[in-house]
Amino acid sequence: MAKPLSSPPGVSDSKNFRALEAWMQNVFALLSKVGSVTTDVGSIAAGAIGSVTITVPGARADVGMTVQVGLPSTVSTGLVPWGNVTADDTVTLYLYNRTGSPIDPSSATYYARVMP
User: Fold this and answer.
1) Which candidate, 101, 31, 105, 24, places its Cα nearest to that of 93?
2) What confidence tens digit (pLDDT) does each residue in 92-115 have?
3) CATH architecture of 33-115
4) For residues 85 and 13, is the Cβ–Cβ distance under 8 A?
């Protein structure tokens, strides 16, 4: 389950720079768990799934972390991406080929961000 972010400092806290600083550090900590890998996924057969493993420091398995995936602009529209935390500090990005023919993505950089 996603961890809720506290509300930003309100109008009454406009002169409380510590409250704003603490809130911004909290946001940064939530968004800083990012990893990337440049790889060639290889040919993905029709109806099959290709995968890419990405190291993301701070990712924790089995605690319900949310995964966002970043794809290169060259990725085929026939591929459906998703990701999950498969082990501590490891995200696996999956690419499902929904078409009726093989797709061979070129070497590219894939990104993943995890959030509690």
Assistant:
1) 105
2) 999 999 999 999 999 999 999 998
3) Distorted Sandwich (2.70)
4) no
Q: What gap in Å lies between CA 87 and CA 56, rounded to an integer?
A: 10
Calpha distance 20→11 (Å, rounded):
11
List Cα–Cα distances, 7 to 4, 26, 30, in angstroms.
9, 11, 14
pLDDT tens, position by position, 26-71: 777 777 789 999 999 999 999 999 999 999 999 999 988 999 999 9
DSSP 3-state assignment of 15?
coil
Q: From CA 95, how far away is CA 74, in angstroms rounded?
A: 13
Structure tokens at 36: 């990337």
Quote the pTM value: 0.77
Query: How far is it, in rounded angstroms, from Cα 6 to Cα 90?
Result: 27
Positions of E strands within 1-116: 34-39, 49-55, 66-70, 79-87, 90-97, 108-115
